[in-house]
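Progress note, project year one: complex with oxa(dethia)-CoA.
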Amino acid sequence: MIRQPATIVASAAYLPPNRVPNAHFEGYLDTSDAWIFERTGIKERRWADDTMSTSDMGLMAAQKALEKAGITPRDIDLLLVATMTPDQPLPSTAALIQSKLDGCKAPAMDISAACSGYLYGLSVAKAYIESGMYQNILLIGCEKMTQVVDPLDRSTVILFGDGAGASVIKAGGKGLRIDRIVLGLDGHLNHALFIPQSGKMKMLGQEIFKTAIQRGVETIEFLLHQEKIAIEEIDHLVFHQANLRIIQNIQKRFNVPSEKIPTSIDFTANTSAASIPILLESIPHQENQRYLSVAFGAGFTYAGAIFTSL
Ligand code: UT7
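Model obtained:
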């Protein structure tokens, strides 16, 4: 039996309305708008208020993605939620979203792979679809980073934002065919970015910065080699949005023009597992284009994928 390739048929984003410009931090931290923009490319981020949870944001993105895909919650066979900021330890954020998606009866689970969570989730979706087990999978990346960052730590609080992105992945159809996904993990670096059981996020920024560039370059080289294509054949390089300087360093190694690299970091900051689906929503669909996506984050997890638009 010929299986249909897993295809992202729709992606959608949700950002909470409250915009927080860099100038906000100047009032109470030893930092400045100029420092933040020059070192990260960030101008502002969105923050969810106390009434909005990770699952609320995930639900908003999911409803938009389902509508774009032309399917209902009843049609979903499996619900996956990539998040490092669950509403609560139990039940999973995926279970909470399932209960809010009217008519959805799908099994649901969370994926914990930090900022690589969306691509890790996509690999799970691809495997299930191409095994023939499921036909329609909803994958959500959603984060309320403000619940885990220390508001007084100037090296992290300025970097992160809240938001959500969601994709519908189907067996076949028009959209982004998932040609290949590669996953990786450097467990010896788990001290470089972590959240203790009770406490806020701790980060060794420079270690993450250097490893992100190194693993990002290697992941791109590996994917190009596996697919037997050159970097010039890639139309869109879809990077996890962590720091514009990380993206620019990798861009320089491969000499890719900036027009091929969409970014949202200036207005979203780092939304962790939500950043790639937020970007995917913004790229106008054109047939026969190749996308290469790369993500990295705590763990130290990293992942890459190649898509072809149909
Ligand atoms: O999804 C993965 C999540 N994490 C990341 O991707 C983070 C990757 N790392 C980074 O983006 C960068 O390392 C940072 C933006 C966190 C820091 O930038 P940097 O250019 O690597 O700065 P640095 O750590 O080398 O620090 C230089 C100085 C230090 O001061 P001293 O020790 O030289 O006096 C920091 O304390 O900059 C200071 N600094 C700040 N100054 C003003 C750190 N944060 C700030 C700040 N404002 N917000």
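The radius of gyration is 18 Å.
The mean pLDDT is 97.
No further modelling is planned for this target in the current period.
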